[in-house]
Amino acid sequence: MTRCAFLGFGEVNTPSEVIRRKCAAAEAALKDAGVTTVSVWPISDDYEEKDIKRALAALEGERFDSLVLCVAGWIPSHAVVKITELYRHLPMVLWGLCGWYEDGRLVTTADQAGTTALRSTFEGLEYKFAYYYDIIGQPSSAPKVAGFCRAASVAAHLRTAKVGMGGYRDMQLYGTLYDGLSLKQKTGVEIETFELLEVEQRYRKISDAEKREVVDNRIKKWRFLAEAKDESLMKAAGYYLAVKAIAEERHYSALSLKDVDGMKKLLGFPPAPVFMLLGEDRYTTIPENDSLGCVTQLMLSALTGQPAAYLEFYEFFGDRVLAGVPDFVPAGVVDGEVTVMPATFGELSEGILNVSKIKTGILTMNRLVYWNGKYKMQSILGSGVTPRKWEECGWAQPAPQLPALEILLSDVPAFAERVASQHYIITHGDNRRAVRDLCRILDIEVEEI
User: How far is Cα 14 from Cα 8, in angstroms, rounded to an integer?
Assistant: First the structure.
């Protein structure tokens, strides 16, 4: 839930009914944009500071993740700062309203006199804040304000978020590693490791009846292009129940598993259907112990309400990249039915492979990167189109058409020179503003390519 403190200000000599009317309209627009408010208005600079004391009393004991300082007219800066200083640890929005036309003339309450007096003051006080102002005759800034408030609530959520990591450093990759202390300090996210032995021990205690219920009520709802072995279906259900039990007990929001050198090599089972089932339960998932990919998913899923799927790169072209997955995609990015098939790759035993089509259209690719002791977020706008017929060498013939998109980019060479991983996280739509808002709050540099 996005929850903020909405504080409306106007100078003591401005007609109170005007300030009230403007604050009421701004608050309603913010609520229409999906924000829950703890509201106090109007707040003036009365000599005895009764309004300031009333506002502080109303906020005491309430929970909110950000402050919206709605300037509906001129207000001396001290009347605002005497409140904000007690909440300087929270992100803030400085929002200036605007005047109106009446009988052929412009009427103003000097809203931007108030905001311009405050903007540099806030900067000097080192607040984490965004500054928006309304313009007469143009749409309200409420959606932008709501977006920043949403990012503040996501940042607050991340402070207690936990990722479950089954195993560690799949395939001995370097790009999936993380520094736990700096990650916690910067994002708040905690990554907890559990062993695949625990998954196997729990799996052995799950009854055939429990597995069968998942097979009949969940797995068989997928569209199968060919009949899979019942043994494969039961294994998928059992390992899913084992991992889910761990996630529920430890309150994980996201999960990754040691895939190639773990589930496939040691347990003899490709975990794609396990990830698919967990995705249906609203967990974000990524394979191969990709720690920063998992954290990126947490951020983007919370910001957008989307599953935040991972894709990896197969080919670069002059104006696009081919990005797909050799295992699974969450149902939320599928165009049409969730489609699967039994398949084998190389020396691996039969697995249940997702071969669904991915939704096309405008999308944003993101990746949290740790480089030379600093975090940055790469954010790239692209357009996903249906890929040409292609296959990954090594699959048993006829080779499956893997879930993929050809993603058109404005500058493929510039992206290739900065690419930080084989895995990037996609969300549909242009979500760069939301990413910028969150990263501003977390003090993470954003690199838009």
Answer: 13
